Amino acid sequence: MPKHLFVIAWLAAFRLSHADVSVIDDTGATVRLAQPALRIVSLAPHATETLFAAGAGEHIAGTVEYSDYPEAAKKLSRVGGYSRFDLEAVAALKPDLIVAWQSGNAAAHVEKLRALGFPLYISQPNRIEDVASELERLGILAGTSTVGNAAAKQFRERLAGLQKRYAQRPTVRTFYQIWKQPLMTIGAKQIISAVVSLCGGENVFAGLESFAPTVTVEAVIAANPEAIVASGMGESRPEWLDDWKRWTSITAVARDNLFFVQPDLIQRHTPRLLDGAERLCQHLETARSRRQTTQ
Asked: Residue limits of the Fe/B12 periplasmic-binding domain (predicted)?
């Protein structure tokens, strides 16, 4: 290639890599950067994981506690917890992009960061499909679209496979338990409710609008779920899941349909959500198989 053409090509590539980038975040706001972000602060564990999946891990300057996946995320600087992060610590990292969590971060703290002039992308992927879109959008903002787009494509293909496999399966009425005291479940807007539907399940508390409503034992008994699924806080099955065994009138108890899904796989809005979905779908298949043996 003649030297002058090489220079022209290099300049074009330079301008492209330094061009304005913009996306629409989950609140409908436009996020515009003069160039792809090189120093990102993530204020949510799920956002940290998704940034890594979108190829932007090396651009993360800091994050919050419990950002523990992938392994490299454990080595990142911390700015506090997602519900009470340290504003000064965030500012000290001089980010050119902050990824915040609409339902997890304190709104007042997020607005203070906005008032300080930091560009903000607000994340709140409430539908399974939103995970793929977030991979693409964060890839654009970080200048790693090649990786982000490929990850999004893979996610959509895997999701389509699960939809095809379980779309026609008989419905399983399902109670998903987040915690024991208070007794918390999932409402219609929670992404886990969409996972239950993906697997051919029916969230018995889908009529509740809040993300994590509190319910009573009596309400669960009245709903009479065919399967009870719990997450808890760690990698082990929570002991309190077996507390339901005293309520033998519940179909899920009578058929021993008390199941566990690791919380990191289903309570984070990340590509691993489909790992959790596969486990939940398998549990509901077990529940279906037990209909024959108990009839």
From this structure: 39-288
